[in-house]
């Protein structure tokens, strides 16, 4: 395994962990509007290499389906199912990255990887639910959207490892087209809202970080690292998100948080260490 191949993944996870805190400053804004603006800003991070945005049509389709499709499905899930349960199902994507890796020809699945994913998912369930969640007897359509969103992001992540090589800067093109599709959804389904100065700042930071640089880092990570290790590490996202909220005064830590954090760290350690270690 190459040195520091996990570093881009860890940086992407850290950026995604800041999304919840930044999102508290944009709650007044419609979700597709937030996505459209932030992804447009994110695309500008690679505008200096716009010539690299030209990729094969099927590569472009997979890239846009991954970035826009995931967010579209997730927002639909939040609108048609309880947010807590939808978010829990959304966090199936790290587990799916681990489990589906062999189907994409990305190595064999070992018991160590299964244990890491299962322990990490248990911690994610605990930290997101705070120990309280109750799925309805009937299955709301929103749950299906959340599960499909998880499959979409995990499949996109794994597919980038098997596509013909394309420049990392091409992710900027994926972000731009996804931004335009999100803007179309905003125009069709949401009322227009003008952001104030604080909201513009939050949108700028979102575009630079969790809806911008994170996608470039994630592309680099998936191409250069072991997807099964990266999938196990990805459960750090809800843990770090909770810690950032607590540090910024927007959340609190309790016994459940520490228990969930311990499970996530154990799962990440099991999954990220090489076989010899």
Q: What does it look like?
A:
It is a single chain. With 277 residues, the chain is mostly helical. The chain contains 13 helices and no strands. The protein has helices at residues 7-17, 19-23, 31-43, 57-80, 83-90, 93-100, 111-129, 141-162, 171-189, 197-224, 227-233, 236-247, 255-272. Helix 5 (83-90) runs antiparallel to helix 7, helix 5 packs parallel to helix 8 (141-162) and helix 6 packs across helix 8. It holds the Pfam family EamA. The chain crosses the membrane at residues 30-47, 59-78, 90-107, 114-133, 139-159, 171-189, 201-218, 230-250, 256-274. This is Permease. It comes from Vogesella fluminis.
Kindly estimate the percentage of residues that lie in beta strands according to DSSP: under 5%
Oligomer: single chain
Taking all Cα atoms into account, the compactness measure Rg is 18 Å
Mean pLDDT: 85
**N- and C-termini, Cα separation:** 12 Å
Number of E strands = 0
Question: How many H/I helical runs?
Answer: 13
Can you tell me the residue ranges where pLDDT is under 50 for at least 5 consecutive residues?
none
For the biggest sheet, the summary is:
none
Look at the helices and sheets and give the structural class. mainly alpha
- Overall shape: globular
H/E element string?
HHHHHHHHHHHHH
The share of residues in helices is over 70%
């Amino acid at each position: 395994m190459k040195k520091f191949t996990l570093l881009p993944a860890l940086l992407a996870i850290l950026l995604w962990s800041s999304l919840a805190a930044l999102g508290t400053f944009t709650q007044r804004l419609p979700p597709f509007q937030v996505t459209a603006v932030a992804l447009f800003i994110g695309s500008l991070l690679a505008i200096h290499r716009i010539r690299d945005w030209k990729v094969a049509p099927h590569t472009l389709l997979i890239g846009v389906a991954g970035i826009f499709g995931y967010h579209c499905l997730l927002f639909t899930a939040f609108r048609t199912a309880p947010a807590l349960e939808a978010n829990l199902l959304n966090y199936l994507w790290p587990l799916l990255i681990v489990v589906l890796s062999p189907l994409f020809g990305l190595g064999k699945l070992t018991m160590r990887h299964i244990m890491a994913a299962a322990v990490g998912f248990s911690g994610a369930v605990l930290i997101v639910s705070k120990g309280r969640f109750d799925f309805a007897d009937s299955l709301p359509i929103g749950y299906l959207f959340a599960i499909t969103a998880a499959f979409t992001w995990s499949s996109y992540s794994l597919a980038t490892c098997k596509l013909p090589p394309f420049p990392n800067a091409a992710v900027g093109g994926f972000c731009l087209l996804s931004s335009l599709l999100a803007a179309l959804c905003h125009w069709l389904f949401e009322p227009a809202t003008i952001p104030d100065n604080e909201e513009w700042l939050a949108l700028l930071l979102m575009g630079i970080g969790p809806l911008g640089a994170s996608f470039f880092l994630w592309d680099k990570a998936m191409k250069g690292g072991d997807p099964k290790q990266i999938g196990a590490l990805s459960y750090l996202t809800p843990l770090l998100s909770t810690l950032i909220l607590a540090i910024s005064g927007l959340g609190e830590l309790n016994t459940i948080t520490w228990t969930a954090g311990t499970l996530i760290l154990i799962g990440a350690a099991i999954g990220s260490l090489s076989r010899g270690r």
